[in-house]
Amino acid sequence: MSRTVIHGGLVVTASDEIHADVLIEGGRIAALAAHGTDAATSWSADRRIDATGMYVLPGGVDAHTHMEMPFGGTYAADTFETGTRAAAWGGTTTIVDFAIQTMGRSLREGLDTWHAKADGKCAVDYGFHMILSDVDDSSLKEMDRLVAEGITSFKLFMAYPGVFYSDDGQILRAMQRASGNGGLVMMHAENGIAIDVLVEQALAEGRTDPRYHGDVRKVALEAEATHRAVQLARVAGAPLYVVHVSADEAVDEIAAARHKGLPVFGETCPQYLFLSTDNLAEPGFEGAKYVCSTPLRPREHQEVLWRGLRNNELQVVSTDHCPFCFSGQKEMGRGDFSKIPNGMPGVENRMDLLHQAVVDGHLSRRRWIEIACASPARMFGLYPKKGTIAPGADADVVIYDPGAEQTISAETHHMAVDYSAYEGRRVTGQVRTVLSRGVPVIEDRAYVGHAGHGTYLPRGTCQYL
Ligand SMILES: [Zn+2]
User: The pTM is what?
Assistant: First the structure.
């Protein structure tokens, strides 16, 4: 069995910060021992990694990505191959992507399609959530089978009428089913019916620029949908995970539900923490780069999101990585913001941006690892295999240089997209080396991984219930 020792670093997990050496055996963490002790120095190893002055972190878990997702007549630009490679560059060693049920087809067929896209392509490990486009008797029955085989979370949309939208009755039925089978319903909470009216009115009045995308997708319509989702989950006796929370009033709804003791969870994304409607209003058609749903909000929402993350009103930061090139894809919406493909790149930037939040004083180091690694792993049934550094865990380990300075740019990133949403932003901290199940994927800032190393992860049910 191959043995690796990582020595001299500061091991940071959601619960501890310890100067410990880490022994890896056959792809798993075998032991930790205090640095400099006889125990640690007696370990024999095939490979030794010097982590002096570095953090030794569990690999990031990004629970919300959309590789090669079809949207509005085009596809998200990252394949599973390029997207998981970029994830590794950014210190993320697990993604959970969304398989999509095509309207009128079975869940199984959608899942098979996503397996075919990912199989043999991924640089790091991956799992799937399932998007329910059609809630009927047969898809409800299929939910039970999927939970049993490791697809334990199901996304529903209160937005996008005619595409992914489910009405309240369908949502209630899916939640009732989830309450019986252990599944977790993930909700895109925006009132899409009302938003579509506002879109139509804006376009009719000639308000066609990207900034109006943010205008019509009102805070009140995110908060209202979040409230309604909470009440439906409460009636169904089901847990609820609200994806990409962007508005202060939506955080309030989640906090109020949690205060009542309801099993309601919230996720936000780096774009809502670091970007704002100022970006959507950039001149020319530049704002299209920042079109995603839920939309970016005015700057003042950011402080509420940071507070929510600190207070555990929000538990997870994922990326909603769904990149479309500016050239040829975002441009489809020139003269009509409603035709701009919704989504932004970010899978490579999440760990660094959240480390910057540690530097800036928004988060503690341990909370950084909690919201980026441990909590998403627990939320989606992957802990402690993923999300921590402890004996028995997969040896998904990031050697992180907390003092390195870097400038985020499309020139240097590894995502298959022609712009960066964070172009020119200086951040402190950078990934040096990444192991996936003990195997180097990034070594001293060189990619040494390969497509097909990443394996599919059947998941357990939510570990917060
Ligand atoms: Zn998404």
Answer: 0.98
